[in-house]
Amino acid sequence: ANPTRAEGDYRWGGFDAVVAEAAQHEITVLPFIFGTPKWVAKGLDGRNCGSSCEHYAPRRKAAREAWRAFLGEAAERYGRGGEFWAENPGLPKHPIRAWQIWNEQNSKSFFAPKPSTKSYAKLLESASRAIRSADRRADVVLGGMAELAGSVERVGRAMRGGSVRWTPDLRSAVVSAIDDLPVLLRTVRTW
């Protein structure tokens, strides 16, 4: 949706079609926002990511600002009272009310160069501020986690440190990420 540095150069056409089709069938979309354009990863973050920059989450201030700008525009377009709904008055209104941020952020395959609770918390906070500036009632959902050893413990550390708050969305993401009930119970009891 944002292939160049030019301000406001978002290509919403593909996502417009998805949201419109869903609305026609009375479905509300839950997007997961994932990926970093090369110009952000290389130019603003100084990453040496070759052609696979999308897995590098924004880390430097300028890159996170570009991330926030994009998310704010997306929420203004597809959220409650959004531009998309004004441009398509014939569609049933099913604005996006929840936004999942990243996916498998605990996996180095999706959060390069390596998973970091602190970096993900910053990304989540940036996303939350941007989305809620457009729709203060929007939900910002923790990305689904890969089933990897130690995942629940890392979320527990982030929550004890205050970087992530317990919400029903987080609870479902944590539960879906593990299959070891004793580990889940021990971790939740420490929160």
Describe it:
There is one protein chain. The protein has 191 residues and is mainly alpha-helical. Helix content is 47%, strand content 5%. It contains eight helices and three strands. The protein has helices at residues 13-24, 38-44, 61-78, 83-87, 117-134, 151-160, 168-177, 181-190, and strands at 32-33, 98-101, 139-142. Strands 1-2-3 form a three-stranded parallel beta sheet. Strand 2, helix 5 and strand 3 (139-142) form a beta-alpha-beta unit. Helix 3 packs parallel to helix 5 (117-134) and helix 6 packs parallel to helix 8 (181-190). The longest helix has 18 residues, at 61-78. The radius of gyration is 17 Å and the shape is globular. 31% of the residues are buried.
The gist of it:
With 191 residues, the protein is mainly alpha-helical. It has eight helices and three strands, in the order H-E-H-H-H-E-H-E-H-H-H.
Tell me, rounded to a whole number, the average pLDDT: 80
Largest sheet: 3 strands, parallel
Shape, please?
globular
| Order of H and E elements | HEHHHEHEHHH
Q: How many strands appear in the DSSP assignment?
A: 3
Low-pLDDT sequence parts: 168-181, 187-191
Helix content: 40-55%
What fraction strand?
Answer: 5-15%
Strand order of the largest sheet: 1-2-3
Please count the helical segments: 8
Straight-line distance between termini: 38 Å
Any idea what the radius of gyration is?
A: 17 Å
What structural class should be given to the helix and strand makeup?
Answer: mainly alpha
Annotation keywords:
about 190 residues; mainly alpha; 3-stranded parallel sheet; 3 strands; disordered C terminus
